[in-house]
Amino acid sequence: MSAPLLEIRDLHVSVEGKEILKGISLTVEKGRLYALMGPNGSGKSTLSHTLMGHPKYQVTQGQILLNGNDLISLKTDARGRAGIFLAFQYPTAIPGVSVANFMRTAMKARFGDQFQPKEFRKQFKSAMAALGIDEAFATRYVNDGFSGGEKKRHEILQMALLKPELALLDETDSGLDIDALRIVAEGINHLRGPALGILLITHYQRILNYVQPDLVHVLIEGKIIRSGGKELAHELEEKGYAPYEPVKKEALIS
Q: What is the CATH number of the domain that holds 75?
């Protein structure tokens, strides 16, 4: 039996000496989309940054395996070349760098000698057309003056061209109005397929009205406390996270 695309085993992560993740275990298979839901401060973004290799996040225990190989020893750029993509909650603007030049550089770094400069323009235009993005987008500076929806669509465009094996979508629905949310969701659905595993991290259920998850995990205070099908997301929308959160000592005292 082949190894899962991503396997996390008893992962503990600390930030500046404070433990944030307290023993997470989960797997991601190619061709499937997993939703990781939880309230603010539960550790969702900590997990995405840890998987991407941010030096601020220290793994104190556990394993992260990509296609059966140790991931913890790899630096961030190596993880990107290995096929991991992170869509940020708040994408950074890069004034002076056009979207086209940014994508050309990113694809060259991702694919190395396999990157074909002569084919880039064709691939770039094809991806924009498939995602319904105007060609004028190519000459704009990366995220400079972009609306929230444009920033997220740019990240979906990156996914389309970089062809990751594992996509980490960190609250990609954050700050989007209904129309932008629908457009971004359509882009995610367009890219779903047997070669891609997706971990969609979100606080709200609303994006899951458009992107159907195969499995939903609930993260509370650094631990996955429940997993289930898409109906679990609807339950969270109805009841909130309070029923899953531990009772605070001060609440018992009062």
A: 3.40.50.300
Round to whole Å and give the CA distance between 205 and 190.
Answer: 20
Q: What is the pLDDT of residues 28-55, one digit of tens each?
A: 999 999 999 999 889 999 999 999 999 9
Residue 23 included in any domain: yes
Half-sphere exposure in the Cβ direction for 169 (13 Å, CA): 35
Strand partners, 227: 217
In a domain, residue 191? The reply is: yes
DSSP per position, 10-56:
EEEEEETTEEEEEEEEEEE-TT-EEEEE--TTSSHHHHHHHHHT-TT
Instruction: Report how many domains make up the chain.
Output: 1
Would you say the C-alpha torsion 59, 63, 69, 70 has a positive or negative sign? positive
Beta strand pairing status for 57-66 and 6-15?
Answer: antiparallel
Find out whether 170 and 89 touch, Cβ atoms under 8 Å: yes
In the chain, alpha helices (H) = 44-52, 76-81, 99-111, 117-130, 148-162, 178-191, 230-239, 249-253
pTM comes to 0.91
- The token pair that represents 44 in the structure block: 């969702």
Nearest to 235 by CA among 18, 4, 37: 37
| Per-residue model confidence as pLDDT tens digits over 143-201 | 999 988 889 889 999 999 999 999 999 988 887 888 888 888 999 999 999 999 999 99
Reduced to 3 states, what is the DSSP secondary structure of residue 103? helix
Domain that holds residue 171: 6-89+165-253
